[in-house]
Write a structure and sequence with these properties.
The complex is a heterodimer.
Chain A (H helix, E strand, L loop, with lengths): L3 E4 L5 E2 L4 E7 L5 E2 L17 E5 L3 E10 L16 E8 L4 E7 L13 E11 L3 E10 L8
Parallel strand pairs in A: 1-10, 8-10
Antiparallel strand pairs in A: 2-3, 3-4, 3-5, 6-7, 6-9, 7-8, 9-10
Chain B lengths: L6 E12 L5 H16 L8 E5 L5 H5 L1 H9 L5 E5 L5 H14 L5 E8 L17 H9 L3 H16 L3 H15 L13 H6 L2 E3 L2 E2 L8 E9 L1 H6 L6 E7 L30 H13 L8 E4 L4 H10 L8 H6 L16 H5 L3 H17 L12 E7 L5 E7 L1
Parallel strand pairs in B: 2-3, 2-4, 9-10
Antiparallel strand pairs in B: 1-7, 1-8, 4-7, 5-6, 8-11, 10-11
Helix pairs in contact in B: 1-3, 4-14, 7-11
The chains are: A mainly beta, B alpha/beta.
Chain lengths: ~150, ~400
Amino acid sequence: MAKEQRQAVEGFFDPSIPALTGTTCVSCGTIFFPAETTSCRNPRCFSTEFTPTNLSTRGTIWSYTDAQYQPPPPYVPADPYTPFALAAVELEAEGLVVMGQLANGIGVDDLKVGMEVELISEVLYSDDEADYLVWKWHPVSGASNGE
Amino acid sequence: MANNKKIAVLGAGMHPWGKWGRNFVEYGVAAARDALSDAGVEWSEIQFVAGADTIRNGYPGFIAGATFAQALGWNGAQVSSNYAACASGAAALATARAQILAGLCEVALVVGADTTPKGFFAPVGGERKDDPDWLRFHLLGATNPTYFALYARRRMALYGATDEDFAQVKVKNARHGLNNPNARYRKEVTIDEVLASPVVADPLRLLEICATSDGGAALVVSSMEFAKKHGIANPVTVDAVATVTPTFPNTIIEMPNFSTDSSVAVPQEGRTFRASIAHAAYEQAGIGPEDVSLAEVYDLSSALELDWYEDIGLCAEGEAEELLRSGATAIGGRVPVNPSGGLSSFGEAIPAQAIAQVCEATWQLRGQAVGRQVDGATVAVTANQGLFGHGSSVVLSK
């Protein structure tokens, strides 16, 4: 039987879409991820009001790498440890670059700067009670590899 | 414009970098005694102590200024303790400098020291779901080398940097550090040895990523009047200390963040944060990068040193590989970078590192950098960048 699915940490993404969940300042239009809900960080704006905003689910790879060595806690590694790839992805409409792991099975040899990727929801780690989800990036099938 | 904001460096001292596993206070005290003896200043004369904090050594680390003052024997000096991530040492120097320039004290001691755990830097313990440094490890498994590797791969894609270029930086710095008695690693390496070391974060290899080290560094700094009274007519001077923060929007991804600022409402203009740090120091000092004889920059990775060439203005964007390949940044070249051996030869002892950069600059400008001397050095610049919008750059001259 499938285990309960929870987010590894609430407030970063909506796994049902899936999409990263940020906010937009109602006054100046600056977008924030992770969500800013207290005080706008545009230094010329003094707004304290924000609307929830789902970020674009596709972007292009700004740069990428991998983790050949197991990161220290609080990372919860697979057992045995399996290296994973990470990318910084540029979202044009939002004017920002956001980090994420690549989907399981995607390595640096599958990636190029400028390649189009899309957001997915995947299990980051599990315990006896639940699977814990996080956002990850996956190359768009048939995407231009940026050349 | 004449720079009337100079202070004198009377003494520099270090405890050698290594993995000694002893209490950080011991390293700080050893470095402080070295610096005092180099300056010919008695501990009892010091009027202000500026400590650079360590966050991995309990309460004494958070109030490092007082910790070192007590260990040296309470002398009634005024005290401060600074934490500014990798820029902590420069922040401590900035505090001492401001005290001196304001006329609140004449002579100050600046000290930083650290004892580090083995392996990757990890966040401070406990579950903290509102701390970006905790979250990036938990949700992404993003270590510090992750970010260094993103910059390295970006250079390859944009400017044609190669694995051999990155390895060459390591080869150069290892050679520079060979004769530095304070360096932890004193061994020449070849490009093949670097390329044969295991990949940690593609494209960066083990020998290209800075280790975590124990070490301590200290400076005795004073007003120009105090130096003169002390019989030092022509001291090395600190001409600028920049500890600027980024300007919004900060559009380069940085440790420990999940994302950059958005430029959708306010476009990014002018220099990136990393480039703004040294340029703020140049402006304070009234000089430009063309005046620099040598630079000590934060080579947290071999590839990052190339980014710094551009950020401190030694060459235009995209030309760092060419500058490296020309030999200009090796000792004997036009503008040697990291003649100390850099973090590549030292490893990082966070609160001591920015002070160590200033120690090396001092010795170079005095002509005392035995075995690694940059001939005829007159102006030195240091630069570093740490977490959470911290960075520093110091300009020194003689």
